[in-house]
Design a protein that fits this description.
With about 90 residues, the protein is mostly beta strands. The protein is built from no helices and 9 strands.
Length: about 90
């Protein structure tokens, strides 16, 4: 499987929120921040689905082998920038 990456950049004047499903891992991106997700792509079909909740929130669904997914926040390891969203 080939590695693939997708970068999300916040070009807005305030924070945006990116939730990576199915876990979900949630990230807050301040103006100018970049979140890069790296994983093993599927052999066929779309590698990622992006659902826009509103202009400041999006949910992404990477497809393929995602057990070893990596997160880079502004080019640096970014797993520690995430919080686990707890449904009530």
């Amino acid at each position: 499987m080939a590695r693939i990456q997708q970068t999300f950049t916040n070009s807005k004047d305030g924070p945006i929120y990116v939730s990576v499903e199915p876990w979900p891992e949630c990230f807050e991106l301040e103006a100018g921040d970049k979140l890069t997700i790296i994983w093993d792509a599927p052999l066929a079909g779309d590698a990622i689905q992006v659902d826009f909740i509103n202009e400041r929130e999006l949910v992404v669904w990477p497809d393929g082998a995602i057990d070893d997914i990596q997160y880079l926040f502004n080019g640096e390891p970014g797993k520690d920038r995430s919080w686990i969203f707890k449904h009530r």
